[in-house]
Amino acid sequence: MLIAESEDGRYEPVAVVSNVGEAREVASQDSLDRMRRLSEQSEGMCPYSYKVWARGIDGKQQLACEIQELLLSPT
Fold first, then answer.
1. pLDDT score of 70
2. CA-CA distance, 41 to 68, in Å (whole number)?
3. By the 8 A CB rule, do 71 and 49 touch?
4. Rounded CA gap, 16 and 24, in Å?
5. 17 and which of 23, 39, 61, 62 could share a cystine (Cβ 3.0–4.6 Å)?
């Protein structure tokens, strides 16, 4: 599960993804969409990072990957 998180700890589910590559693609598109909406409406959550959570072999949810670099580079 791909989750968007803000600096103040708020979070929103984004999508179910099957691997880290797909997570990066979805996070990149989601980030662009959010920035566009924020510039038009001035409301919404601005993600600080995207995190991929997955069920481990023990059945517990664990952090699989954190994506921040796409938010730092201009597109």
1. 66
2. 24
3. yes
4. 12
5. 23
Structure tokens at 33: 């969409």
Q: Express each pLDDT in 16-46 by its tens digit.
A: 999 999 999 999 999 999 888 888 877 778 8
Q: What is the pLDDT of residue 68?
A: 85
DSSP string, the chain: -EEEE-TTS-EEEEE--SSHHHHHHHHHHHHHHHHHHHHHHS-S---SEEEEEEE-TTS-EEEEEEE-HHHHS--
- Residues 4 and 45: their CA atoms lie apart, in Å, by 9
